[in-house]
């Protein structure tokens, strides 16, 4: 059913559960599995140095997330291709999906309070709304 699956992974516990589900789905469907992590840029950076510093910190974090994910997938007999992009999560992930032609996005559920979700919303909610493909939210 799915030929290309994308897992969005921010290194959280919820993303780890979503990764496990994505690995199983890729194995079951014989699908290509890719993972995206988004280095969030500050909305209002004080300087270019602040952006560079945040990108360097995020790169170190996501290198570990990617290597763990690749190893976990390999142990299950699945090849996982990691991608790290800079930007804002919803737009970066949605654009990546459209450009690369994924059939399924797998994301972890991010539990917030009802008030937080009403006022701010969540990345998960916005991805469900804006992703140009099927979305599986894993709890």
List the domain count as a whole number.
Answer: 1
What gyration radius follows from the Cα positions, in whole Å? 15 Å
- CATH architectural grouping: 3-Layer(aba) Sandwich
Q: Secondary-structure element order, as H and E?
A: EHEHEHEHHE
Structural class: alpha/beta
Per CATH, what is the topology?
Answer: Rossmann fold
Overall geometry comes to: globular
Number of strands: 5
Total of DSSP H or I helical runs spanning 4+ residues = 5
Overall mean pLDDT: 85
State the distance separating the first and last CA atoms.
Answer: 22 Å
Task: Kindly estimate the percentage of residues that lie in beta strands according to DSSP.
Answer: 15-25%
Residue runs with pLDDT of under 50 for 5 or more positions: none
CATH class division? Alpha Beta
Largest sheet: 5 strands, parallel
Helicity range: 40-55%
Could you name the CATH homologous superfamily?
HUPs
Q: Major sheet: order of its strands?
A: 3-2-1-4-5
Topology of this protein?
Elements: E1 4-8, H1 13-29, E2 32-40, H2 48-75, E3 80-87, H3 89-100, E4 104-108, H4 114-119, H5 123-130, E5 134-138
Helix pairs in contact: 3-5
């Amino acid at each position: 059913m799915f030929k290309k699956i994308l897992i969005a992974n921010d290194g959280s516990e919820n993303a780890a559960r979503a990764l496990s589900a994505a690995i199983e789905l890729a194995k079951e469907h014989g699908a290509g599995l890719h993972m995206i992590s988004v280095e969030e840029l500050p909305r209002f950076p004080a300087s270019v140095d602040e952006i560079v510093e945040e990108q360097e910190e995020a790169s170190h974090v996501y290198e570990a997330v990617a290597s763990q994910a690749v190893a976990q997938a390999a142990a299950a007999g699945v090849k996982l291709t990691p991608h790290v992009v800079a930007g804002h999560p919803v737009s970066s992930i949605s654009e990546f999906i459209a450009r690369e032609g994924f059939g399924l996005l797998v994301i972890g559920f991010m539990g917030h309070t009802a008030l937080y979700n009403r006022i701010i919303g969540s990345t998960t909610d916005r991805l469900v709304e804006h992703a140009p493909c099927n979305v599986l939210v894993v709890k």
